[in-house]
Specification:
The structure holds 2 protein chains of 2 kinds. By secondary structure, chain A is mainly alpha-helical. Chain A has helices spanning 2-7, 9-15, 36-52, 59-62, 84-87, 91-99, 106-109, 121-124, 128-133, 147-150, 177-186, 188-191, 199-226, 233-236, 240-243; one strand at residues 158-159. The radius of gyration of chain A is 48 Å and the shape is flat. The model of chain A is unreliable at 1-26, 41-54, 185-199 and 232-244 (pLDDT under 50). By secondary structure, chain B is mainly alpha-helical. Chain B has 2 domains: 1-61; 63-107. In chain B, helix 1 (2-27) packs antiparallel against helix 2 (34-57). Classes of the chains: A mainly alpha, B mainly alpha. Chain B: It comes from Notothenia coriiceps (black rockcod).
Chain lengths: 244, 116
Amino acid sequence: MTEMFSTLFGQNEAQGPPGSSSLGFGPGKPPPPLPQNQASMTGQMPPQLGDEGPALRKPGAMNEPFYLLRELPVGNELTGNTNLITHYNLEHAYNKFCGKKVKEKLSNFLPELPGMIDCPGAQEGSSLRSLIDKPPVCGNSFSPLTGALLTGFRLHTGPLPEQYRLMHIQPPKKKSKHKHKHHRQQDPLPQETPSDTDPKKKKKKRDDDPDRKKKKKDKKKKKNRHSPDHPGLAGSQPNSNSLR
Amino acid sequence: MAEKFDNLEEHLEKFIENIRQLGIIVSDFQPSSQAGLNQKLNLMISGLQDIEKCRQQLHEINVPLEVFEYIDQGRNPQLYTKECLERALARNEQVKGKIDTMTVRDSPRVTEIPLQ
C-alpha cells in the first residue's frame, strides 16, 4: 500500500492541493489503474528512485528545499569585478586608440584617397546609408564593353563645363601654424640683419602694399578732381572763357 | 584573414586610381584620347569583377551600422572604436563599483543571523 502510494506520489501531489483543479487535475478523479506488471515493477522502483530522487517530480523541483524556492543561478567566474580589457587582451588596442590622439577627419584615415572625402556623403547622394536603404541590383555578371557599346562613349572635345570641374580637385592641404611659429622664432635670432630682411616686417610690407596702393589711388583721384585739367570739372565749374 | 583585407584593399585602390585617371581624361577630352578612354572603361569593368570575387571571401564579416554613420559624416571610423573602448571601460568600472558596495566581507551582521 505504501509502495503504491509512493509511486502515485507524483500524480497525487498535483491532485492534493485545492488549487490544482486549474491545472486540469480534478480533485475527484481516481488515479489510473496500473497493470500488474507495472505494479510489480513499481514495487521495485522506489528503492532505486530513492537513490536518485523521485523521478516523477520535475527536475527543477528536485532540489527545492522549500516550496517554489528554485535553484540559485550558477555563479559566473567572469564578472565586472575583473578588468575585461586585460581579460580579452585588448590593452594594445586601448593604448593605440585611447592613448594617442585620433584625428577627427576621414581624410586622416584614408590619406591616399583622391577628392573631397571629408564632406558629408548625404550632400552628394553618395552616403553608405542610402546604399543600405536602397541596395543596388546585384547578381548580374560584369561583361566587358564591345565595340558597338563603346560608341556611346564618344565624347565631345574640349574642357568640361564649370559645374563638373570640381570633382577631381582636392582640398588644399593646410600647413600647421606651429611650423611657421618655429620658423619665426628661429629666424630673427641668428640673423640679426637689418629690418628689411626680417620676415615679419617683410610680411607687414606685403600686407601694407595693397593698402598703400589703395591709398595712393585715392590720393590720385583727389588730386585729379581738384586739378583744372580734369575733364569732369569742365561741366561743373563755370568756364572762365564763357564769363568773359 | 588579413590577407583577404589586403587583397580587397589593393583592388579598391587600383579601381579608384583608374577612375581618377578616367576623370582626368574626360575633364579635357581630345580625339586622340578615345582609345585610352575605352581602355580605362574596360579596366573599370575588370576591376569590378575582381572586387566581386573578393566579396565571396568576406561574406562572414559583420560591420556595425554605427560605423557607417561616422563615415557618412566625414569622421574617422577609428573614433567609433575609441568610443566603444571608453564606454566599455566606464561601464566596467561602474559595475565593479556596484559589486564592491554590495559585497559584504567579514561583516558581523552575517554571523549574527540565526539559521533555523
